[in-house]
Amino acid sequence: MSTEDFKRAAAEAALAYVEPGMKLGLGTGSTAAHFIELLGAKVAEGLDVSGVPTSEASRELAERHGVPLTTLKDTPELDLTVDGADEIDGRLNLIKGGGAALLREKIVAFASKRMIVIADASKRVERLGAFPLPIEVVPFGKESTRRAIERLARDLGLGSDVAIRRAEDECPVVTDSGHVILDARLGLIDDPERLSVELNRIPGVVEHGLFLRLASLAIVADQNGVKTIEPASAQAEQQPMRKTA
Ligand SMILES: O=C(CO)[C@H](O)[C@H](O)COP(=O)(O)O
């Protein structure tokens, strides 16, 4: 089985947590795309749900698969967000933003009663930080903001290589909200809470990819099958997945 199969297995398992009438947050990325596709199939069978997409890409995908859409304006409170992640630690703190959708992803997750993160098991880490931390910044002053983040990282004893994310044509990647992304190679992060607070204090930083205490369940899959992981109990890692209704 391939990594893609594991992503799909995790996405399929997340469907068990979707109930009729739910207002859903629809994540972004290749794992979330599996979930949106599978959800579309359930909608075609009669499941009554609606979703708020976290990116234009996910909006297009959801439309293509017939998932009814709503907005945070019309539906400011959601029942459940299902999204992927770039890294997941034991407390289910996450690094997200590899797909440049972290701002809308965080807004949508925060507006949800529950966030379930789905991934292939390679995303699990003991400590966050091997994956460069995506930070969404306002284009005005992006070089000053980049340098301020490098200074902060040095002060916190972290790696301080912060680069503007560029597309294949070398132009800066622009997010759905018109910002740019900085990728911060910080090394392993001992205190993500402090880093989060300090990053949010830098003018020009719109949001960063540390998702702390937002996910209440992770569903990860590998060649050994699908596992659910809850943040509180390390033992839960070995529990079999909840049965589908
Ligand atoms: O945060 C994200 C997008 O901003 C994605 O959820 C994250 O990058 C994981 O993507 P994939 O499922 O393709 O590995």
From TrEMBL:
Catalyses which reaction(s): aldehydo-D-ribose 5-phosphate = D-ribulose 5-phosphate
Biological processes, Gene Ontology terms: pentose-phosphate shunt, non-oxidative branch
Record EC number: 5.3.1.6
Pathways per UniProt: Carbohydrate degradation; pentose phosphate pathway; D-ribose 5-phosphate from D-ribulose 5-phosphate (non-oxidative stage): step 1/1
Active site annotation, chain numbering: 105 (proton acceptor)
One family name in Pfam for this protein: Rib_5-P_isom_A
Family: Belongs to the ribose 5-phosphate isomerase family.
Subunit structure: Homodimer.
Classification via PANTHER family: RIBOSE-5-PHOSPHATE ISOMERASE 3, CHLOROPLASTIC-RELATED (PTHR43748:SF3)
Protein's name in the database: Ribose-5-phosphate isomerase A
Gene it is expressed from: rpiA
